Amino acid sequence: MPKIRVKHVVEDMDRHGNVRIYLRRKGHAKVRLVGPLGSPAFWTSYHAALAEKKPHARTSARAAAGDKEGSFRWLCEQYFVSAPFKRLSPRTQYVRRGLLDRICEENGAAPFALLETRHVRAIRDKRADKPEAANGIIKSLRQLFAFAVEYELADRNPARDVPYMRSGSQGFHSWSLEEVARFEACHPIGTKARLALALLLYTGQRRSDITRMGKQHLRDGWLHFTQHKNRDRKPVTLSIPVIEELQEIIDASETGDLTFLVSDFGRPFSDGGFGNRFRKWCDEAGLKNCSAHGLRKTASAKLAEMGCTEHEIMAITGHQTSKEVIRYTKAARQRTMAKSAMDKFSKG
Questions:
Q1: For residue 173, how many C-alpha atoms fall within 13 Å in the half-sphere facing its CB?
Q2: What domains lie within the chain, and their CATH numbers?
């Protein structure tokens, strides 16, 4: 059957392999259409998108006004092409640009030199219902003005003294031993899901690391690799012994040539694609609150329960300071110390 061709319609494939349909016309924003191509829903969305008028020249002129030199938008544009911004990972660039663009929607035309600490605090407080989002904005503004000070575009950083909001969140849920057993019962040794669990749990690494691990990283019973996060700024290279349980699961699993874990198409997972797949595996096991990153916390907590020091745990997780390790292992250490205290009390 010949492929349907429609004027101004293009198909793009996202990083997960899903086909997206768009209307793309010169002078207009790209518009996502409802699929599949040729369906009644598609034609409805197609004609509705065609009916949208080209933005008025005055509107475009007003939008461009925020880019004049000295405006907040202008400062952001200077930052986006700077060396400090380009050194960030693509994911961090994407998130930070999105946060700053959101501020520009309301304050893009304002002179950045007039921005004061009280203004930054007001921007933060507008998002008080979402503390993590508010903290992301504060961090982005701190880095933006740190760039401005370094490059002598500003003489002060108005976001530096604005504190982060306390979210009250404990972060990602740390898996219990019962939840690990439940996942294992649902996904036996030899499955891709069980291999993913073992790599996460027995190495204590992030998903961005285990999706890149392969046989080339295995030498003499050790995994040698550089963590993906901050690899271009502050690379962390680790050597971790492969425990017997992990090696048995690797040996019993079908793996790829360059990565242990591969998609159904035989290609390495993207970070987002793996996250979606692991979410599906957890749902199949009835573990709605569990995630891949939660296993990193579980590994750290288990090491703490076994009496490992903070520096020993850091040698596995790759953390450069003990702050995050303490947060991960606080509950585990409390249980360990409580047991030790009650053992002494019982003997006394």
A1: 11
A2: 9-50 (no CATH), 67-150 (1.10.150), 177-347 (1.10.443.10)
List C-alpha distances in Å: 254 to 63, 89, 189.
54, 31, 11
- pLDDT given at position 145: 95
Give pLDDT tens digits for 47-92: 877 876 554 443 344 444 446 889 999 999 999 999 899 888 888 8
pTM value is: 0.64
Confidence class of residue 9 from pLDDT cuts 50, 70 and 90? confident
Angle CA 64–65–70, to nearest 5: 115
Question: Over the chain, what is the mean pLDDT?
Answer: 85
How many angstroms separate the CA atoms of 272 and 12, rounded? Answer: 17
Q: In what order do the strands lie in the sheet with 31-33?
A: 9-13, 19-23, 31-33
Q: Is the peptide bond before 36 cis (omega within 30 degrees of 0)?
A: yes
The rounded distance, in Å, linking the Cα atoms of 311 and 300 is 11
* 227 CB-near residues (< 8 Å, 6+ apart): 205, 206, 209, 235, 236, 237, 238, 318
Encode pLDDT of 289-299 as tens digits. 999 989 998 89
